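It is time I had a proper look at our fold encoding. Can you supply me with one protein entry, sequence and fold together? It will help me judge whether the discrete encoding reads sensibly. Leave the record below and I will have a look:
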Amino acid sequence: MKKEKGFTLVEMLVCVAIIGAISGASLVYFRGGNRTWALIRATQAFTQDVRRASNMALSSPKITCGETEYSPKGYGIYFNKTGNANTYILFGNLTTGDNAYDAPTSGCYSTGSDVIIETITIEAGVKMQSLSAPSGVDYISIVFVPPDPTVNFSNGADSLIAVLSLLDGAQTRQVTINNKGNINTD
């Protein structure tokens, strides 16, 4: 009698079970990796936006709001721990010596306010967990003033430490900006 070579049904079922287990495990790790990458992307975007404000202070572009063109005295980023902590504002500072963000009452500008260049939303699944604003203060601005640009923090701060995290707080990334404009991430 001639024996046929091939797989038995039991061998096939074992192979399918092993492949299924490996696929399931890699899918779980893949989803966790996506969350980690979202946090890394959000941190990088945040640091790029701070550098963008610094670069704008070097080049001093005019800002158009409606029909009016403005020449800001500085460019900055505004963070607020209350309200929507998943957004921050890139703005043009129109007041000399005022190192704080003065919110317009409507649109991108109103008398006595600063010009909003862009409101930036942090990537989905990531939040601004904490800011190192001085005690009792819920907001902080970083303003880069031309031509150097010098770095100024509102509320008497001398640096900013921002902690971004996943929504569940499982992972965090810290961004530190000092009074020289250096940005460090960990």
Remarks:
- The chain has one helix and eleven strands.
